[in-house]
Every structure is written in structure tokens, then in C-alpha cells.
Fold this protein.
Amino acid sequence: MTGGTETRWWRSGVGYEIYVRSFADSDGDGVGDLDGVTAHLDHLAWLGVQAVWLTPFYPTPDADHGYDVMDYCAVDPRFGDLDAFDRLVAEAHRLGLRVLVDVVPNHTSDRHPWFVSARGDRSSPTRDHYLWRDPAADGGPPNNWRSYFGGPAWTFDEATGQYYCHLFLPEQPDLNWRNPEVVAEFDRILQFWCGRGVDGFRIDVAHGLVKDATFRSNPQCRPVPPGATPREAFACFEHRYDIDQDDTTTLFDHWREVVAPFGAVLLGEVGIYRPERFARYVAGSGLQVAFALEIGWMPWDPPALLDVITGLASSAGAGVAWEVSNHDQPRAVTRFGGGAVGLRRTLALTTLLIALDGFPFLYQGEELGLDDGSVLEGAHADPVAVRNPDAPGDGRDGARTSMPWTAGPGNGFTTAAQAWLAAEERGAGDTVSAQVLDPDSPLHRYRALVGLRARFAELWSEPASVHRTGDVSLAVRRGPLLVLANLGDTVEVHELPPGTWWEVFDSATCPVDSSPHAATATIAVAAERTVVLVEQR
Ligand code: BGC
Ligand code: MG
């Protein structure tokens, strides 16, 4: 799977995010683990996805559920060990699945040996691996930067009289990417995992690594309203100096050289919502592709969704990793109205995304049409929820409850009395084992949808021409394929180009298209529905 040449394999398939600690628990401790993933890779091969992204499984004190790393080249014993990792990669490759691992370069854990040494000792050899500043004249933080997770992005270190920067929790000190030893250490980390056979990296907070060299305050657009969630507070500033600095992309040019001998792909998480800024990350010789996060935060607002999609498609095209859900956001089914309504809308949107250039991703459980899970009273674990009790809206736990494999206690995820994130049991109809047997299930519909890219290579290989056919509708033409998305709440009649068109997928019905019906001259696309047509030649 690896080799010296870059094949751009990701353009043809669909990726799948595995939130490792909630996917499958092999040893009954209530925490998903690498052997659990390995045991269920056959489900993903059957679903037809091409690659899996594994969320962090490195040693961690879990202040941010693994996104606070103590050792970048090891496996936390709760998740397994390096042998378990090697078995996972071998089994994935045997099944034809690529493996992407998460690399977390913006910050380490405060328990990483570098920070343990740096904190409390100005002369520590790793002091400059982090971002330290003197207090402002009034003794407060050195500037007005905010943490994504609430409060200032600075914490005071009593022992040395300086503040350190953290765009996330105080337990996640930000690294100093202007320090060459930091750069060299991450080269080594990338090479370590490439050497173990990974096919690429998902890069956490790729837009955040480099900060303004003189730490200027950000312009503030409006006062932070009382009771604002951390996200709302963050949005009250223009993030001119803390994130998205011009030289961030230069760093990824270097990373690309580091991974090139292994043929690995660099997939960044780029939380930048201006398409022209987002596009810079995938325009050059750095990242090949980047997650666009905006859709995953949006409610059901068809004109706005289509604005975002067309903006990204025209500016960043094949460089976009499309997703509607991930482990940081409420699931799309929930955001879009819940239940059958939310699922219908999610599938209409996802069918459209799969027809665009780029690398579409599903988040575990999306193929089952899941709503957010119901976390039990008192069991919330996400620091964003737990540490902001007055602004609970931003909590991420609902999307992180365990994967339902079978009916009954533990849902086949664990044999422990309780999963690490205790939640209400999912009903039988939400489980993999029930949906596999039901050809009308969301699982079968997703499988048919994922399979479209294999069935019709033109769906990714032919140039895409994207036309906004209305406020709430979009048409994508790719060679002999025509994809019509009607996200509105009334039926739309489309003129078809001359020829005979066969409907091969409909986001709202079960995938029995062994005898596709011929459509002629016009086609009525029902509300909140996307259809895929192929021209008979
Ligand atoms: C990850 C989050 C994490 C944050 C800080 C992200 O965007 O996806 O889960 O909390 O980075 O590492
Ligand atoms: Mg376990």
C-alpha cells in the first residue's frame, strides 16, 4: 500500500472516522480499544469504505479524551499496545482498507515530559518548546486570545511568573512551532507511524500551529454576551493573530516532504470558514486534503448549506474532506430535525457530497442513521460541557456514545456493566446486527451510496460541473452522471438533458435498483431528496 509515488487514492473512495474509545471494547473494561477495532473491520469492508481514521489512542491523562498526548509513539494500555496496532494495520490492509492516524501537533498534554520539565523552570531545555509570555502591565494575561473551550487562552505559572498559551484546555499547552526541535520531533513522529505502515495522517487543529510572532491581541468584533458558550465567545473576535497564520502552510510543505517517501496522505483539520483562506491549505505542496468543519456545525438551512458547499467546491475542490458529523459536533440527524426527518435530510445532503470532488467521510454510526445518544444524568465527560456548566450547549458527548452492534445491555460494544460514557441503551432497530438483515435500513442505503463511487468511477474521475439550480437545489454533472439535489420542502421538476436517463440512487428510498426506471424529458425530485441518474449510452 505504501510506495514512493503518490496515487491520490483518496479521490475515489469514502473515509470513515472511528472514535476509538466508543467503537468496540474487546476486553470488557468499558473502553473501546484497538483489538475491538480490528475485530470489526469486516463491517467497514462490507460497507465499502476505503479508509479509516483512528482518533488518538496514545498515552493520555484524558483531560480531552486523548487529544492531550503524553507520548506520541506509544499506545495507551487501555487501547492496547503497538502489537495490537500492527495487527490492526495488517488486517485493514488485508481487507483493502487504508489507515489514517490522528496526529496532535498544536499542543501536548501538560503531563508530556517536555512540559513537565518546562513548567516551573525558566532554564529547562524544553522551556522554549512552548509559548511563554510575561503578564500584561496589570498582571493579567499577555493578550486577549480566548480558548476554544472557554476562558482565556493563557494560564499563569506561579513558579516562573509567566503565562503559557493554550488554545484549548490549560492541560493542553500549545507548542512553539518556531522552535526547530519541535519541528524535528514531529518529523520523527510522522516517520515512526509511516514505518508502521499507516497510509496517512489526520492532523488535529492544522490551522492553529503557528501563532503571531509578537502575540498581538485579536481585534474584537463585539462584546462577549453574558452566558455565551465557548464557541460563541470565540466568534466575538477576529482571529487575526492566534490561528491561520500565513506560514502555517509552509510547515506542511515540509511535512509533505517528510512523508513523501512513504506515500502517506496529509489530511488536515482546518477550522477556517472563509473558503479562500481554507483553500490555501490544500492549494500548494502541503496538505493534500482538509476537513471543512462548517457544515458539521450547521442546522438544517438549505440555502446556507448550499452556499457553503458551493463556496468550498469552487475554491478548494478536490482538496475538501466533506463531513456532516464528527466526534466534536452533534450528529447531523439530530441537528437536522431528528429521527426520520433528520435522516432523510442527512442522506439528501450526503448523497450530494459524495458526488463532489474531494474525500467524503462518514462518522461511526452515521451509517445506522443514528441520532445523538442520551448520556445518563451525571455521566457527562466532555470537558467543554463539564467546565462550562452555565453554557452546556457545546457539549460533545451526545455524538460520542458507543457504537450499537447488537441489541441488549452494552449493545455489543462492551461486556462491562457500563461504557466509559454511560448512556441509554440503543433500541434493537439502531443496531448493526438488525440493520444488516433489513434491506430497507439506513445501513443498506448508506452501503449503496458508498458503493456508487466504486460502481460509477465517473462520479469521482470525470470533471464535476456544479450548478445552483435554485435557492435550495443543486445539480452536479459528471460525465454520464447527473446528480440532482432538492433540499427544499416542496417537489421540484427538473428538465433533463436530451437522452435516456436511468435513476440509480435515491437518497430517500431503499436501494433496490436492480431494475432502474427510465426517466425522460423531466424528472420530479421530491422534497429533501437527492437522486443520481446515469445516461444510457
Ligand atoms: C479535535 C477535538 C479536540 C481538539 C483539541 C479537535 O479539533 O477533533 O476533539 O478537542 O482538537 O485537540
Ligand atoms: Mg477495552
